[in-house]
């Protein structure tokens, strides 16, 4: 699957808040080529944890989701755990951060950054 290939939008969703925040961060960096990478790593208090970073280049096997000029990249290993999930942006007592609302997670921890299947 190439990053330019058409993609089912129901597989991973972006909230309007997440789109707006990515747009603002890309503008702030003055680099229109930046893409938000969402990934999953082992660890955290529930077994897996979410990670977010900005990158300019997509890997050949990445899935790219585009919304309103914003591109989100997900590697194949992470994507299997994120099908049906939503990337959101939250501002609250814990600070400002990207969060994942994931229906695949059996349990999540109090910080919202860690989950188990």
Automatic annotation (TrEMBL):
Keywords: Iron, Iron-sulfur, Metal-binding. One of its GO terms (cellular component) is cytosol. The gene is erpA. Its cofactor is iron-sulfur cluster. InterPro entries: ATAP (IPR016092), ATAP_core_dom (IPR000361), ErpA_proteobact (IPR023063), FeS_cluster_insertion_CS (IPR017870), HesB-like_dom_sf (IPR035903). Iron-sulfur cluster binds at residues 45, 109, 111. SUPFAM superfamilies: HesB-like domain (SSF89360). Residues 11-112 form the Core domain. GO terms for biological process: iron-sulfur cluster assembly. Required for insertion of 4Fe-4S clusters for at least IspG. This is Iron-sulfur cluster insertion protein ErpA. Binds 1 iron-sulfur cluster per subunit. Belongs to the HesB/IscA family. Pfam families: Fe-S_biosyn. GO terms for molecular function: 2 iron, 2 sulfur cluster binding; 4 iron, 4 sulfur cluster binding; iron ion binding. Homodimer.
């Amino acid at each position: 699957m190439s990053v330019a290939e058409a993609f089912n939008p129901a597989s991973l969703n972006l909230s309007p808040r997440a789109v707006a925040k990515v747009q603002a961060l890309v503008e702030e960096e003055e680099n229109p080529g930046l893409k938000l990478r969402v990934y999953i790593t082992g660890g955290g208090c529930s077994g897996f944890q979410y990670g977010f970073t900005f990158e300019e280049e997509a890997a050949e096997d990445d899935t790219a989701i585009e919304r309103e000029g914003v591109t989100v990249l997900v590697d194949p290993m992470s994507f299997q755990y994120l099908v049906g999930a939503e990337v959101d942006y939250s501002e609250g007592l814990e600070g400002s951060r990207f969060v994942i609302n994931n229906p695949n997670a059996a349990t999540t921890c109090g910080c919202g950054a860690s989950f188990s299947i």
